[in-house]
């Protein structure tokens, strides 16, 4: 590792320490930070909730990093695919009476086919082209998805009442049952995808294509088929993420933009194209968001600012992220 690369890593570590300390400093200034047992229990609850929430963030961010890692296409419609997953889950729950988790059996194949269609109809033409072209095409796709969903479902917020009870860990620490279930499902799906990429022949072909598409083609790998499968898998992970967030939070057609921002921030933090980096970045972002929400007055409105700030400063300090390789 070059000296400059090591220096940027240390700078990033110092920035992250400051970023996590800042909510505490602001909280001390405004008097929202206390040292009593009840508040400390609440702090532990918030951090634990952030970790559980981060597992879901990381899972759908993996879909974004997969597509970029294999095709070098920035999917600006990824959050809209998460939003699509939330609406598909809502439809199967309220109209078909299917459990939101069991609904994944129906929604994931639909998502995979949707992703494959997007690849065949839109993205095939821009693979290997400047990144801006793919970004603009997927941005247009995202807008089309938003307006289509608004036309069908209006802009009203929807919710899915699921596992509303809490899991009491101690007298002062409790987390929502739906968060625990979502985290467990996200870990299971993420682990399954990781093992698929690591151990299966098709997964190794995807990794080989990500490393060098031309060499993979020479070795007999059908690169266009790999692109199709990768985009389908990325869309399926996004829709799975939408199903898991839909049982925790309300959603409407505009919420996709928030999830796109979160996915971008996670990928930038962890390292573009790095699977494990996306998992680490998801946990880190969610914990930071929860700390901001707890300690800063009107912190809920500052959550998106925290994600933007994290993404911008990481790009300035270390564009390759925590675990990404330096380009060039």
Task: Give an account of the 3D structure.
This protein has one domain: ABC transporter involved in vitamin B12 uptake, BtuC (Orthogonal Bundle). Helices cover 73% and strands 2% of the residues. The chain is mostly helical and 328 residues long. The chain is globular. A two-stranded antiparallel sheet has the order 1-2.
How would you classify the quaternary structure? single chain
Write the CATH fold name.
ABC transporter involved in vitamin B12 uptake, BtuC
Give the total of domains: 1
- Which sequence of SSEs, written as H and E, runs from N to C? HHHHHEEHHHHHHH
Strand order within the widest sheet? 1-2
Biggest β-sheet, characterized? 2 strands, antiparallel
Residue-averaged pLDDT, rounded? Answer: 89
Structural class: mainly alpha
Contiguous low-pLDDT stretches (5 residues minimum) are none
Short key terms for the protein model shown above:
globular; 12 helices; about 325 residues; ABC transporter involved in vitamin B12 uptake, BtuC; two-stranded antiparallel ribbon; mainly alpha
Provide a short characterization of the protein structure:
This protein has 328 residues and is mostly helical.
